[in-house]
Specification:
Elements lengths: L1 H40 L1 H4 L3 E4 L2 E5 L71 H16 L26 E2 L1 H6 L1 H8 L3 H10 L1 E2 L10 E3 H14 L1
Helix pairs in contact: 5-6
Length: 235
């Protein structure tokens, strides 16, 4: 009986010591070590890849943002602020501007198939309201309308896919160079800049494929609009 109690006490004490040691090592030492390495070697990434303008954090380079005008009375969906480069369509993005941090509401991809609302395999203006095809047709018409300025008319064939469809996360921070270039004339006209100045901004903020072969060339919209704001202020 005494041996049994003694053995149980010894095992309990051994288990308690193991719990204490593992708690200290895995719950304190390891997290502090990983945090220290992250802050020391990857400070920007560890803190959310923040983008700053005028000393203020204006967002993250990893999360897309919307650039809209304030809601008008009776309006449910805000109009885009056409002074800025527009990102790809996305659900769940809160209000934002170049000057303030944004509010993230929710994110996610649509579960609609590519032929949702298609007629004879194609999206047309006759597609039923609420379908993916209807959304794409409406988005393409808006891109053509918003980016056509005196002396430069956008044709529907120029509109790339990322201008009318959202990403899988709904929070893609990048657009294609083609979509950025499509907006150059409108940005120049709205900000009193030359087309050459704005096009150079796009070129300077275009990144190539990762490691030279993965993904596609891309333009970070927040970085591009931050550079645009600085250029417009100087002009």
């Amino acid at each position: 009986m005494n041996n049994s109690v003694s053995n149980s006490a010894r095992l309990l004490w051994a288990g308690l010591r193991a719990l204490i040691v593992l708690t200290v090592v895995l719950g304190v030492v390891y997290p502090l070590a990983v945090t220290g390495i992250g802050q020391g070697l990857f400070h920007g990434n560890a803190n959310g890849s923040e983008v700053k303008a005028d000393g203020k954090v204006v967002g993250s380079s990893l999360i897309g943002q919307s650039y809209n005008l304030p809601l008008k009375k009776g309006q449910e969906t805000p109009d885009p602020d056409l002074r800025w480069f527009q990102p790809r369509p996305a659900g769940g993005l809160g209000e934002n501007s170049v000057n303030t941090q944004y509010k993230l509401i929710l994110s996610g991809a649509t579960n609609r198939s590519g032929d949702d609302g298609a007629i004879n395999g194609a999206c047309t203006v006759k597609s039923a309201d609420g379908t993916l095809c209807a959304q794409v047709v409406a988005a393409k018409a808006a891109v053509v309308r918003d980016n056509s300025v005196p002396g430069y008319t956008v044709s529907p064939s120029q509109v790339p896919a990322d201008a009318v469809t959202s990403s899988g996360s709904g929070l893609d921070p990048d657009i294609s160079p083609q979509y950025a270039d499509l907006q150059v004339h409108r940005i120049a006209a709205k900000n009193g800049l030359s087309v050459a100045q704005v096009r150079k901004l796009v070129e300077d903020n275009t990144k190539g494929r990762q490691l030279g072969f993965m993904g596609e060339p891309r333009v970070n919209v927040l970085a591009l609009n931050t550079a645009l704001r600085e250029l417009a202020a100087k002009s």
